[in-house]
């Protein structure tokens, strides 16, 4: 039997991966369509709500909640969101920051396929075989986690705190690790229980405002409560209750930046007994109180740096 070719170790990526986030957004979009175009950088899109149709590199995909699309530079693609609306957090990025070449920020409109005039700005081809194969819809157990990190990048861009670029680069590195992990698969207890753990995490996220019963969630995963706690913590780096708290804060941030609800209303909606306990937990996670977070984000929080899909 012939031997499988050896893959380069993933740590071989470390010397040259230093992601640069150029544009991002997380707004609700009414029915929309962007005709065929190509890009100079990478685009990653997560479908949080709604349905549509994405065509990437000549392959058409149905887009639905949980879909994740990786669009490399110079790859023709067309995107459409069906009525009534779609929520599709996205991020434009370079895998490696290049001084003098990465520092551009303009939108490429539909119909623009010939990018030869901008060749100097285009992201160079990648050498790692796994990254080179990524194109179109990514099917993996951890797509939702990638989507959450994209939304965190959008929130970071909206807050515009000191050193936001550095933190967004770190979050983008985390995304790349999750994407590669999803493509490579998981081993041992990680791989054996990955799907069940992701389903249980989805349940916690979707019901984060309710009282958490670890035995009930463990039953969803088909595990005993003690084993569930152990493998959940290994898989997510947090206990189920800490994961729930983080999910509540994430949902609260989305409500603060995407609604006019006051802090007390948001605290109640995400499951905190009082606005004081919510503010304390929020500050522990984010480093500033909810009111300051919302104030610094401003009125157009979810637009990110720019909106590359905005119609002219």
Give the beta-strand count. 9
- Beta-strand level of the residues, as a percent range? 15-25%
CATH class annotation of the largest domain: Mainly Beta
Q: What sort of overall outline do the alpha carbons produce when their principal axes are compared?
A: globular
- Biggest beta sheet attributes: 5 strands, antiparallel
Q: Give the H and E element order.
A: EEEEEEEEHEHHHHHHHHH
Oligomer: single chain
The unreliable regions are 299-312
Structural class: alpha+beta
User: End-to-end span in angstroms?
Assistant: 58 Å
CATH fold field value of the largest domain: Jelly Rolls
Global Rg:
20 Å
Mean pLDDT: 86
CATH architecture annotation name of the largest domain: Sandwich
Helical run tally: 10
| Helical content (DSSP H or I, runs of 4+) | 40-55%
Number of structural units classed as domains: 2
Going across the biggest sheet, name each strand in turn.
Answer: 1-8-3-6-9
| CATH H-level homologous superfamily name of the largest domain | Regulatory protein AraC
